[in-house]
Amino acid sequence: MPHIKVGTENSTDINIHYNDHGTGKPIVLIHGYPLDGNSWERQERVLLSQGYRCITYDRRGFGKSDQPSTGYEYDTFTADLRCLLNHLALEEDVALVGFSMGTGEVTRYLGTYGSAGISRAVLIGSIPPYLLQTDDNPEGVPQSVFEGFKQAVVADRYAFIDSFLTNLYNADVLGPERISAPALLASHRVAFRSSPRATYACIDTWETDFRADLAKIDIPVLLVHGTADRVLPFDKTTARLRDEKLIADSTVVEIPDGPHNVAWTHPDEVNAALLDFLGGSNAGGIEHASQLHRTREMPGVV
Fold first, then answer.
1. Which end of the chain is more exposed for a tag (fewer CB within 10 A), N or C?
2. CATH topology classification for 3-292
């Protein structure tokens, strides 16, 4: 299994697991919480068939990556991503694609390191701009919500994950047609094996303010979001990115009745939008993706 060293904790190396498949223009796919790089399987299959090179990796604390007790904040997550890009010598025409927490890495990367070598970015189920409710961000979510999540992890991490994954896929509504019982079980197994420390500590990262990073983005960005997202509601996230014009060049694709992880439940719609934005060759998919730009808006619920 390919790994790269991204740091140390005491005398122990911290290694990140990654996969690098295909040839052509590189696409780096950054997974969401509490999943791993394999969660992109429904996108990778299509992207590889269209001639793209697909790189996935497991965030520290998750999947096959090491599980340190430190580094669970976006500056470190972004530095890990930077290490991977440098290790693979990805220096030209790279697309960064993030889902959920992965949208934070994409945004912080562009805000910290700039867009040199990065041609496009995709945010699916965005966590930016800023989830925490503050005096200068009244649209955000009260901090008590995040504290409640952490208390739930401490009380029973497995019960928290079980509830979280139900809402990740809206499994009570969309199963079994769009999320089968075995697929949901597979997500549970991945999440249960994640670091207990990471499961808890990553919740604090959901309070990160990305507004300064967003202002520095100077490449085209595709924003894909399910209108029935319970985890990161559309009106708290992607709708704000669009309505407040927080990204200079952005395109929004709404997935009607889509949950948080539309990449799994609505792969045809997501893949069509990706290929359209990245310059893929699937004419039918491109037509379908353009139709999605005109879908209706629905408020989310915290």
1. N
2. Rossmann fold (3.40.50)
